[in-house]
Design goal:
Length: 160
């Protein structure tokens, strides 16, 4: 999707058609978040188009009892993903409310992309938290004894 859009924009720019200003990305809300311990990936359902668009990124899947506690993660108030720039952004409940976490994600439509040819069984995730001290975000996975989590690297920043 991104390559097609970028290629089309590049062709239009060469021909002198279209605006000279950069295109502003429009992130869309996430309606569900699931993570899979077999593939070590988290997938977000996106509220876009026919509602079958997804965002996927790599995550560490671990059991809470087997990992040392992190410093002080803070909850996320919203999560949006953007297929134009391939990122997801979470608004964080911290300080003045303008702190954000972002990370790269692959945005795709399942009908247009297979799941690497194998069946996967993602589990629902909740309680998205991000930690500016460690630069990581994590979610609790609704699996087994409830002690499973997924975590990934994120850029934590303040929105001016």
């Amino acid at each position: 999707m991104r390559r097609t859009i970028v290629g089309t924009c590049a062709a239009l720019a060469v021909l002198g058609i279209g605006s000279a200003a950069p295109v502003v990305a429009a992130p869309v809300p996430v309606t569900a978040l699931n993570c899979d311990g077999d593939t070590y990936k988290c997938t977000a359902n996106l509220r876009f188009g026919d509602n079958n668009w997804k965002a996927r990124w790599d995550a560490s899947i671990f059991h809470q009892a087997n990992r040392s506690a992190s410093r002080a993660p803070v909850p996320a108030t919203s999560l949006n993903c953007d297929g134009d720039n391939g990122t997801c952004v979470a608004n964080l409940m911290f300080g003045d409310g303008r702190w954000r976490a972002s990370w790269p994600a692959t945005v795709f439509h399942p009908a247009l992309r297979s799941a690497e040819g194998r069946l996967v069984a993602p589990v629902p995730a909740n309680s998205l938290n991000c930690d500016g001290d460690t630069g990581r975000c994590s979610v609790n996975l609704q699996f087994g004894d409830g002690g499973w989590k997924a975590a990934w690297a994120a850029t934590i920043y303040h929105q001016p």
